[in-house]
Amino acid sequence: MAAPTDPDAFLAALRPHYDDALRTCRALCAGWQPSEAEDVFQSALLKALETFGQLRDRDAFRPWLFQILTRTFYSAVRWRRVRRVLPLPTEVEAERLGLFSDEPEAGARADLMAALARLAPKERAALLLYEVAGFSVAEIAEVQGDRSRSAVKSRLARARQRAAGLDALSPLPAL
Prior knowledge:
Butyryl-CoA Dehydrogenase, subunit A, domain 3
């Protein structure tokens, strides 16, 4: 049986990684409604809180959290596909909102988000985990459940090619 979750210990472990996780989630959900990105983030945090007692190595919290975030994003992608085929009768398509702020650099941010939205979910996740969150290729392979590092390297190369508008990946604009 799993150890009970200590909310204070969870919050202490989450605090240094919260902003990076939020930015990564927003970028993963590029092209989606902001409320959908928030839902993915909240679902990931809830899952992390619920399973925190099972984490054996607290030093591995960051990759563990990003793995949960990435898998929650993949689930949301699958759910969006189902909703396209079987729309809920009460669902009303809302007008696209601004990305996340009204700052002057919102245009550049919108271009970046549009380029990210063109990528396949696994490519987008790999690119963001590598370029924004600073994960190594080996860590991304673990987060994405790949057995081979070369698969991640290929995915990163494809993502860079497909995101033609992202020539200046270093550094990426603040998300």
